[in-house]
Amino acid sequence: MTSDVQHSSASHRENISANRARLVSGRRWIIKIGSALLTNDGKDLNAEGMRTWVRQIVNLKQQGVEPVIVSSGAIAFGMTRLGWKERPSAMHELQVAAAVGQMGLSQAWQAAFAEHGIETAQVLLTHADLSNRQRYLNARSALTTMLDLGVIPVINENDTVVTDEIRFGDNDTLGALVANLLEADTLILLTDQDGLFTADPRSNPSAALVDERKASDEALDAMAGGADSKGSLGRGGMFTKLRAARLAARSGANTIIVGGKIPQVIDRLHEGETLGTLLLPDESRTVARKRWLAGHLQMSGRLTIDAGAVKALRESGSSLLPVGVREVEGDFKRGEVVACVDEQGNEVARGLVNFSSADIKKVRGLTSQRVRDILGAMVEPELVHRDNLVLC
Ligand SMILES: Nc1ncnc2c1ncn2[C@@H]1O[C@H](COP(=O)(O)OP(=O)(O)O)[C@@H](O)[C@H]1O
Ligand SMILES: N[C@@H](CCC(=O)OP(=O)(O)O)C(=O)O
C-alpha cells in the first residue's frame, strides 16, 4: 500500500462512514455500467450479470430511490453480433456496430426488468440534447416524467448519429451530465475493477484501492493515467471516470467507482458499506447546485413577481407559477434563464423558464387551470421549476 491510501486514522474512518451513510439517504442514483462488464469482456451479453444488477436496482426502487441506468455496451455487443473481433476505427463501422448492439441491449434490459413487472424506456442522447437549453429542458422533463411514472430510463449515447467532433465519446461523461441534468445525489460507475487504484492494476498488481477522496484532489490524476489508460472495449478507462466525478461534483453529486462483479454491490453501497472509491464534491449539494446553475447560465429576461410569489419562493422553496407573475421583460424562449425580481426591482431568484416570454405575457397572473385552457394541457404547471431555480 502506498502512503496515499494508508491514512486510516480513526477520524478518517469516521469521515468515511459519515459520507457513506449520506449516500443511503440519496434520492436519485445514476448507475452507469461499462462495456466490459455488460459484455463479459466482449464475449456476449452478460445476461446473468444484468439479472443481478436488475434485482438490486429493483431493491433500490422499492426503498424509494429513483434509479436511472446509463448502459454502455452497444458497440461491444454489436461487434459480437457481427462477428467482428477487433473494434473498428472507421466511424461508419462503429455506428453500425452501435445500431446492431443497441437493439439487443435494450431488449435485454427490457426483459430483465419485465421479470419484476417494471417498465424501462430507451433514451438515446446526443451532445446537442444537453448543450441546447430547450432540448436540455425537454430531456429533463421527459426523464423526470418517466421517474414519476415508475419507469426506469436506460440511457446511452446515440452513437449512430454522432460524429467524432460532437460525441460525448464515453458514457462516464454522459453519466455525469445526466447526474447534472437530473440533479442526482449519486453517480455509480460500475466497472471491471474494484475501484480506482493507485495505478492500473492490470499492469501494477501491487496497486492499492483508493477508498475516498475529494473529486477535485489533483493527486488522483496521476493514478488514473491519461486518456490512453482505457480498457480495450470501452473508451474511457479511469481518466474519464475521474473527469466524470469532477463534472458530477459541479452539481453536488457523489461519485462511486466500483466493481460491478462484487456480490450485491448496489445493495451493499445502499447500506453504506465501504466499497469502491467514493469521490466527493467540494461543496454541499445545494451550494454546488446553486453555483452550477448561476455560473452555467446567462440571463435572457426578467420577470417581476408579486409579494406572494416572493414569499413562496423564499420561505416554502416552491416553484414559480404563472399566477405570481406581474411583468415580463425581454424576448426569450422556453429553456432560457430569467431573473425574478420583486415589485421594488430587487432580484429574488434566477432560473430556467418553461415558457417563452410571448406565452408568459398571455398567462401572467392566471391560475394553472386558466393557463392550461389558454396554452393547452401539455404545458408544465410551473413557470420555473424549483429544481431549476436559484434564490439570490
Ligand atoms: N488507476 C487505475 N485503477 C483502476 N483501473 C485502471 C486504472 N488506470 C487504468 N485502469 C483501467 O481502466 C479499465 C476500466 O476502464 P474501461 O475499460 O473504460 O471500463 P468501463 O468499460 O467499465 O467504462 C480497467 O480495466 C483498468 O485496466
Ligand atoms: N455508447 C458506447 C459506450 C462507450 C463507452 O463509454 O464505453 P465504456 O467506457 O465501457 O462505458 C456504447 O454503447 O458502446
UniProtKB/TrEMBL annotation:
Give the principal location in a single coarse category.
cytoplasm
Q: Can you tell me which residues bind ATP?
A: K32, T191, D192
Family designation:
Belongs to the glutamate 5-kinase family.
Per the record, the GO terms for biological process are: L-proline biosynthetic process
GO: which molecular function terms? Answer: ATP binding; glutamate 5-kinase activity; RNA binding
Q: Where does substrate bind?
A: S72, D159, N171
Query: Entry's InterPro entries?
Result: AceGlu_kinase-like_sf (IPR036393), Asp/Glu/Uridylate_kinase (IPR001048), G5K_ProB (IPR041739), Glu/AcGlu_kinase (IPR001057), Glu_5kinase (IPR011529), Glu_5kinase/COase_Synthase (IPR005715), Glutamate_5-kinase_CS (IPR019797), PUA (IPR002478)
Gene that encodes the chain: proB
- Which SMART domains does the record cross-reference, listed alphabetically? PUA
What this protein is reported to do is described as: Catalyzes the transfer of a phosphate group to glutamate to form L-glutamate 5-phosphate.
Location in or out of the cell:
Cytoplasm
Q: What class of enzyme is it?
A: transferase
PUA domain segment(s): 301-378
GO cellular component, as recorded: cytosol
Q: Which UniProt keywords apply?
A: Amino-acid biosynthesis, ATP-binding, Cytoplasm, Kinase, Nucleotide-binding, Proline biosynthesis, Transferase
Key word Endoplasmic reticulum present in the record?
no
Which EC number(s) does UniProt give?
Answer: 2.7.2.11
- Which protein is depicted? Glutamate 5-kinase
UniProt-listed Gene3D superfamilies: Acetylglutamate kinase-like, PUA domain
